[in-house]
Every structure is written in C-alpha cells, then in structure tokens.
Amino acid sequence: MKLRRTMMFVPGNNPGMLINAGIYGADTIIFDLEDSVALSEKDAARHLVYNAMKFIHYSCEVAVRINHISTPFGYKDLETILAVKPDLIRLPKAETAVDIEEIDELITAAEIKHGFLPGSINMMAAIETAKGIRNAYDIAAASPRMVAIAIGGEDYLADLQTSRTKDGKEFFAGRGQLILAAREAGIHAIDTVFGDVNNEEDFIAETTRIKEMGFDGKSVVNPRQINIVHEIYTPTEKEIDHAQRVISAYEESLTRKSGVVSLNGKMIDIPVVKRAQRTLAYANAVGKNEGGTTL
Amino acid sequence: MMNGVGREIPESIVGIKNVKPYIGPFSYVPTGRLTGSAIKVNKPRSEKVLASIEQAIEASGLKDGMTISFHHHFRNGDYVLNMVMAVIAKKGIKDLTLAPSSLNTINEEIIPYIEQGVIIAVETSGARGKLGQLLTSGKLSKPTIIRSHGGRARAIECGELHIDVAFIGAPACDTYGNINGVEGKSACGSLGYAMVDAAYADKVVAITDHLVPYPLFPISIPQTQVDYIVPVEAIGDPKGIASGALRISKDPRELLIAQYATTAIEHSGYFKQDYSIQLGSGGASLAAARFLKGKMQKQGITASFGLGGVTAPFIEMLEEGLIKAVYDVQDFDIPSIESIKKNRNHQEMSAAFYANPHNGGPIVNQLDVVILSATEVDVNFNVNVITDSNGVIMGAVGGHQDTAAGAALSIVVAPLLRGRLPMVIDQVHTVCTPGETVDIIVTERGVAVNPLRADLKENLKAANIPLMDIEELRNIAYEFAGKPDPIEVSDKIAAVVEYRDGTLIDVIRPTA
Fold first, then answer.
1. Could you tell me the fold of the domain covering A6-233?
2. Predicted confidence band of residue A258 (pLDDT cuts 50, 70, 90)
3. Which of B445, B464, B480 sits opposite A287 (nearest CB)?
4. Is residue B286 one of the residues assigned to a domain?
5. Cβ-defined contact of B464 to A292 (cutoff 8 Å)
6. What is the ipTM score, two decimals?
7. How far apart are CA A143 and CA A102, in angstroms?
8. Which of B74, B476, B500, B512 has the fewest Cβ atoms nearer than 10 Å?
C-alpha cells in the first residue's frame, strides 16, 4: 500500500535543496516549478529539476508540480520533465476534468515517445477554488492516472473571501468535499501546507484534525515537519496489536474456507479487516511492526 | 618512518626534540617523573599586586627565548593575550615560544609579533583565519606543535612543555592571588585549562578586571601558585566570552544527523541507567542533546555524569535530574556559567583531570559515549579537525583525540557534503584522531560502523538508521562531488600534530 503521509515541496531553483530532498524520509517529494519559483527563474528551475532527476537516485516517490497549462510555462514544463519520468505530475489550480484529460493525453504521448511503460506516470491535482471543489469528484475520476487530490491553501481562501484561523473553520467545507470526492474515486486526499514552520503546536493540532477527517497525508514545506506528521499517522501499540489479531483471524478463516470471521467471539466484517490492513501499513512505514523504532 | 596511521614521519625534525612516531592509542608507555614549577617563596605582608603588565613582566624575569602561556577560556572575547604580547614586544623581548591552550580569530593581532621574531614558535591546540594561514606557511623558525587538551596537560606535567611565565586572565582575583572564573564582568565559568599552567609554570601572573579584597571563594586557582597580580580595565569582551543559551539548530540536515546519532546511541548497548556522556558544542551535537533528552525521559534513564565543554542543553538535563553530575573544563554559554557558580553537582575540573593520558586516570577513561564533529573523515575512520580542504590550519584538536580514545563509544558526526566538497574521502589531509579510536561515522546519508566494532554493528541492525560501509559513504560523496585531487604541499614541515601521548600522528606541510 503506497503511503502519502507527507508530500514535501522543494523549490525547483535551489540546487542544495534538490540534492538533499530525498534524505529526510518524506513519502513523496514534489519539485516545484510553480509558486515558489519567480517568473524570471522558470527556465532555470525546469532545467535544474530535469538534471537533478536524471542524475540523482531518489528512493522516495518523486513528483513535479508544473505550472498550469494555461500559463506560458505549463507545456514546456511537461515536455522537459516527462522525459525523465517523474512518478507523479502535480497540476495546480485544477478546476475541471478537462484540465486533467488534456495532461493525461500529453503524458500518454510522452510515454510512447520515451518508451516508458504505458500508464506508469501518475497524476494528482490541487484544487484551489470553489469551482474546483464543486468539480472535485470529476477531477479525481478524470483519469486512471489520478492517485490523489489535494486542497490548496491561500488561493482557495482568497477565492472563498476568508483567511486562516487557528482552528481551521475556513477549510471545513472544502476539506469535507475533498475527502468525499477522493474516497468516492478511490484515491488519496492530501491536505494543504502549514507555512508557519516554527509553530509546532498548531501544526500538530491541524495535522491531527485532518487525519481524523480521513486525509491520507499533508503537504509539507520543511523537512522538520515530516517526523511530526509521521508520528501522528503512526498507530499506537494497542492499535497495531488489535490489527494484527484481526488479520490473523481473517487469514485463519481463509485457510478454513469459512465465510465467517470472528475475534474474541465478535464478528469481524470486511471493513474492519481493511482498516486493520491500513493500520499495519502505517505501522510498517515506520518500522514499528518489525521491532524497529521511529527516529 | 611510517607511523601507526600510515603517515610518513621523518626520523628527525628541526625544532622538535625527540621525534616519536605514533604507534597505537595506548602503545606508548611513559617512564620517568613529573616535573614541577620553580620553588616559590612569599614573605608575610608582601605585595603581589603590581601597577602594570610591564612591571609584572619585569618581576617575572621574562627573557629572550623563554616560553609563555595563556588560556583560551575567553575564546573570541579574549583581550589578555594580545594585551600582554603588545607589552612584551614593546620591551624588545624576542625569540619566545607562545604556548596558549588555544588561539582564536581575535588573536590575529599578534601576527606582527610573529613576523618580527618576538614569537618564534607556537605550541597550541589550533588556530583559525590569518593566524592559521601563518602557522601553515612554514615561515616560523620552528614547526608549530599541535596538541590536544589532554596532550597539552601531559606535556606540561611531564616537562615536555616547560612554561616560564603563565599569564592568566582572571575573571575574579583577590589581592593575594586566589582566582575563580565565575564572578566579575568577564566571568567564563570553569578555568580548567589555566589550572595546569598555574600549577606548573615557574612564574604565574594573574591579570584581572575584578580585583576583590582577600579572601576570594570559591577558589579555582589558589594563591599558592600565583606570583603577581595586575588589575586592568578589561580582560575580555563578555559578548565574545559567552553567548546566551546556544540555540538548537533549525538546519534540517544537522537535525537529521543528530537524530541518526542519538538513535545509534540508543541501540548501541551503552544507553543504560547511569551511562555517561559528552557532547560537543556544534549544531548537530546541541540538537543531539535535545533528542537524547527525549529518549532518556521516555525510557526513564538517567546519566551518572556528563562531561564537557558545557552548554545550556546539558545544564537543563542536570537541573531536571537527567544527569547526576557535570564535570566541566570550559563553559560555552551564560546558563553554563551560572550553573557552575551555584550548582554543587556541577564541578570544575582541570585539563589534566579531564584528559591527560599519563596520570592515574583522566575522566575521559570513564566516559561511555561521546559525540564529536569532524572536518573530514577517511575510509580508515581517521579524522581531521585541523586543516581545511586547502590544507590550511583552520580548527583545533581540542579534546577530540582524548575523548575518542577514552570513551567506550565515540561517534563522529559530519555532513557528507559541504558545499561541493566531499567529507568522507580516501585519505584525510591531516590525521588528528586515529581511526581505531573512532567507532561510528554519522552523516545525513548514512551511518558507518568501524569494522573493528562488529559488536556495535550487530546492535545497530535493530535501529532504524541507514547503515552502510564507510566505502559506500565515500562513493556517494564522490558521486555527487567528484574525487578531490590531493593537496600539493612542499617538503617543509610547518607543524606537527602530536597524539595525546606525545608521539607524532601527522605533520602539516605548507601548501605549494
């Protein structure tokens, strides 16, 4: 099971950060060609990211956030970056399924051109407007390449004519819609960044909140945020123990070819098994299920 | 002669008495007796306080060719060394050997005195900036001798480094020569390095900006060792002497290195109730203190003692009961200075008690774990902390050799790449600490265990850290940065690096 607890943005025009992006343990790194890169630096960032991806072996999932295809940079970004086979293309400011379908076609063409396995490059989209939220399911389901949708931060709040609050009321409707759309489409829901890197307390509160809402992970802007998110997504010993017992009971029922699964006299249905599998996947990600420890 | 770390050491070196090549960390067995200062006498009601440094220099009998010493507890806030050297130069005294416990950038002011021949030789722990460049240039008539803190204490106590006159910056001094470092505007905390000088120098001059009526207490350096006292306006700049509490690094790479280092400690087998620890003052070391604290709290482990080089995170752990006692040879920040002043479990110690390998046993021998930094490391685990990537002196050996040899587990932390330079390489330019005393190298991309420590390697398999061979680390570094060309040097010897036992572990030659 692929986890995307943390998707870390790395500015595409910073060579030092590109070199070290992979060492901090983020589930996904996102090389950014969009908002963190000044207009005058767009070319340089595109070529730096291209060369970094060509030369450096990153052991985690590598995504590239391209500029929107309605800007003068989007198509060039795709043309350059697809040649070095990113795991994932992230489109910003997605509003309709048409955006996704167009990029899907470009990716398909690039896969043929470069001889990559068809369908091997995934996509995700960030939704940053009210219109996008209304179309969230259509966007999420627009292509089999789609693996995640994310809610964008500042643009979305500007569109909503509100601003950040401590307890995140302003995001409540958008996050709710996003998670429903992602679940219906069967893909990941990723939360927005929390920019105040030194405010650990509010970051923990927000991450805990979005985990409870059902989000699969969070975009992060600094390596220091990674372990905090992973810690929050790490199941407790008790949860792991229960999940292990559910899975053993389930596996035993399979060998017995019995349709009924029970644990301690209680019936277990398939959603419980699925939840247990998910718990163990998160435990495995931090080595907690194998006798190791978190960092 | 090829020494024990594969470095070519000449049979004889002009200006160095009795060249002995390094063999192994505990191979050299000393013989003979300790030395001592000149016998002193002081009649009742005689006056030790003099009006000027010049008078003190005259009274001390300082002459051409003698050896003078200073301590570096004031670090980059030190006024004493420059002030005294200016007077000495003015008096026309020359051919001196300067033997301070270390040199800082602020001491660059003395460069003209080296060029004029007032100072013709230097014996110290290290140097930076222009002074480092000068000591690497080979322009001095004798090679500079680089010694660790323990090695310097040893050299003084056994007579290899005989100090004629020690000038001791005294943050607080009474009218009969009792000194401590915890009071006055230039308080620096422990006076650990100066203690050895005071005990063994023929003449001891205290220079103070806080002269108090007799008697002063607590006493770090006693009246019995002090000959003259000179009150001056200021012996240092408090801002340069100690910072506020050093802040924990926010550099994610340093934090990652610190996490790997503390996870390694946790799984090493040494992380037990009543273990002991020394941490450096670098970014990764300070961050390691915070992570270690978390692990100790979580697992209910307390340490029997902490050693240092003391910084605020250590003091926090002492005050919270996580460390039972702190032994202190120098303080880096204001919280540490405050602590040594008021906390009975925070003890001052001399450099000899700390690290001299040739006594009944320094405290480093009792140390379980130390975290050390490095400029560069090689595939034989040898560490360089003295020369930069151009081969120029830009650091100090400090307690590196001593704690690496003494501690049961010595961990060296270093970034794998600094800018575009690899830091794990085939051969370090200058060996300071021999690889056989280094157990683990921690970088941001991987952790390598010395093959001599199969036990550790086994223990660390359970830890969630990227273990790899040291050659693999080097390969990653080279892959990014390329293999650096060896630094071209001339035949001359500009400096020798002593191992703590007095044998030569390496020489530093001027760069071509």
1. TIM Barrel (3.20.20)
2. confident
3. B464
4. yes
5. yes
6. 0.84
7. 10
8. B512
CATH 3.20.20.60 location in chain A:
6-233
Q: What pTM was estimated for this model as a whole?
A: 0.92
Measure A180 CA to nearest chain B CA, in Å.
Answer: 35
On whether both B421 and B378 belong to a single domain, the answer is: yes
Distance from CA of B340 to the nearest CA of A (A): 32
Question: What total number of domains does chain B contain?
Answer: 2
CA distance B136 to B152: 20
Residue located via tokens 């020394």: B278
* Boundary (domain end) residue, out of B198, B218, B241: B241
Q: Is A20 on the interface with B (CB under 8 A)?
A: yes
Q: Let me know if residue B22 belongs to a domain.
A: no
Same domain membership, residue B209 and residue B257:
no
Residue B423 resides in a domain: yes
Domain span at B470: 252-494
Residue of B nearest to A59 (CA): B445
Does residue A191 have a known ligand-binding role? Answer: no
The alpha carbon of B428 is separated from its chain's Cα centroid by a whole number of angstroms, namely 20
Compute the distance between CA of residue B148 and CA of residue B354 in angstroms, rounded to an integer: 11
Instruction: Let me know whether B266 and B230 are in one domain.
Output: no
For residue B283, the chain A residues in CB contact (below 8 A) are none
Cα–Cα–Cα angle for B83, B87, B90, rounded to 5 degrees: 140
Contact check, Cβ <8 Å, B252/A224: yes
Residues B211-239: tens digit of each pLDDT: 999 999 999 999 999 999 999 999 999 99
- Over residues A230-246, the mean pLDDT reads 92
pLDDT in tens, B351-377: 999 999 999 999 999 999 999 999 999
